[in-house]
From TrEMBL:
SUPFAM superfamilies: OsmC-like. PANTHER family: PROTEIN YHFA. This is Putative redox protein. Pfam families: OsmC. InterPro entries: KH_dom-like_a/b (IPR015946), OsmC/Ohr_fam (IPR003718), OsmC/Ohrsf (IPR036102). Transmembrane segments: none annotated. It comes from Thiohalomonas denitrificans.
Length: 138
């Protein structure tokens, strides 16, 4: 896997992934940015959220659960001093479907957290990561 990050101007960078997709990253105005894109640390959380949500949906579909929506809501805390690494991350899944089995949803969340989500397992080496879920009928 490869990625390329190109400085555009001030605190704006263009990240290009091996897949050919690109994303703009920018800093806040107080650090010379113009608020044109997500911050790099936000990108880490988005990547972890995408990784784990993908797993949960995939596992639920494989177990023939009628999932129609999945949202991963993430809250994170960072260290007060440099390097301001993540110290705590909580992922709350809101899973929607018809007659979803809570045991299977819990199993999907646990499997993602403990076995499949490379991003969250990697971030778990430096941050305490917790998970929760709720089921919405629909």
């Amino acid at each position: 896997m490869k990625a390329r990050i190109k400085w555009v101007e001030q605190a704006t960078f263009l990240g290009e992934a091996d897949s050919g997709h690109a994303v703009v990253m920018d800093g806040p105005p107080e650090h010379g940015g113009r608020n044109l894109g997500v911050r790099p640390m936000e990108m880490l959380l988005l990547g972890m959220g995408g990784c784990t949500a993908f797993d949960v949906v995939h596992i639920l579909k494989k177990s023939r659960q009628p999932v129609s929506d999945c949202v991963a809501e993430i809250e994170a805390e960072r260290a007060d001093s440099d390097p301001k690494v993540f110290t705590r991350i909580h992922v709350h899944f809101v899973v929607t479907g018809q007659d979803l089995d809570p045991g299977r949803v819990k199993r999907a969340v646990d499997l993602s957290a403990d076995k499949y989500c490379s991003a969250s397992i990697m971030l778990g080496k430096v941050a305490e990561i917790t998970h929760g879920f709720e089921i919405v009928e629909g």
